């Protein structure tokens, strides 16, 4: 009787095992096929790394939140937990990369090491350097939008510049603004001119428009028959011709 009971128990256990195998197999296959949507160890730094890689491969227009999420094998919402939009994400990429420029200002008392770090980044990583111009050229912005970290660098440099340097700095800003913008009104609006905002004096009348003319410095050599040819009637002496003289010929 004991042997028969043991045999029945063994048969019953084998039956239960055979019934569980298909279910375990299905569960295993389902688990392996399910995509990973929220990596447990997804960090802000990983998102920035993936964004930079996507940026170097696809450029500004080709870098999207969806592409970054696909690269990280995560849901799009996982990225929006850290950054509200693409602009904020790209600002963070620049912030992390240009932090050494600010660190050099904290370590040294001169601007040169910080400028050297800035130029090194621009030369070694041109795509990343162009990112600030892509952001500044955002068609939805009325005036160029300087990325946050670049604004911090400009402020820090400004605290260390002497009065003599500001003329060169102003020219550089004007030159860069002209490159970014296409119209005169946009350039003037971007430059702001804070010291002139509250000017109360009446504007001066515009100066008359003058047209430069080419001046003949010396008469041509005499002809073979002798005598010096007279200048044409539409030539004027050295200086400028008033705009009203529309018959002035520019040579």
State the gist of this model.
The protein has a domain at 44-160: Tetracycline Repressor, domain 2, CATH 1.10.357. Helices cover 58% and strands 2% of the residues. The protein contains 10 helices and 2 strands.
* CATH-defined superfamily of the domain at 44-160: Tetracycline Repressor, domain 2
- The gross shape turns out to be globular
- What is the name of the CATH class of the domain at 44-160? Mainly Alpha
Q: Which structural category fits the helices and strands?
A: mainly alpha
- Unreliable sequence segments: 15-36, 195-205, 207-251
Largest sheet: 2 strands, antiparallel
Percentage of β-strand residues: under 5%
Average of pLDDT? 67
Order of helices and strands: HHHHHHHHHHEE
Kindly provide the radius of gyration, computed on alpha-carbon positions and rounded to a whole number of angstroms.
36 Å
Structure description:
- This protein is mostly helical and 251 residues long.
- It has a domain at 44-160: Tetracycline Repressor, domain 2, CATH 1.10.357.
- 58% of the residues lie in helices and 2% in strands.
- A two-stranded antiparallel sheet has the order 1-2.
- The longest helix is centred in the first third of the chain and has 32 residues, at 2-33.
- Mean pLDDT is 67; it is low at 15-36, 195-205 and 207-251.
How would you summarize the topology of this molecule?
Blueprint (H helix, E strand, L loop, with lengths): L1 H32 L10 H19 L2 H8 L3 H5 L5 H22 L4 H13 L1 H11 L11 H13 L5 H15 L3 H8 L18 E3 L27 E3 L9
Helix pairs in contact: 2-3, 2-5, 2-7, 5-6, 5-7, 5-8, 6-7, 9-10
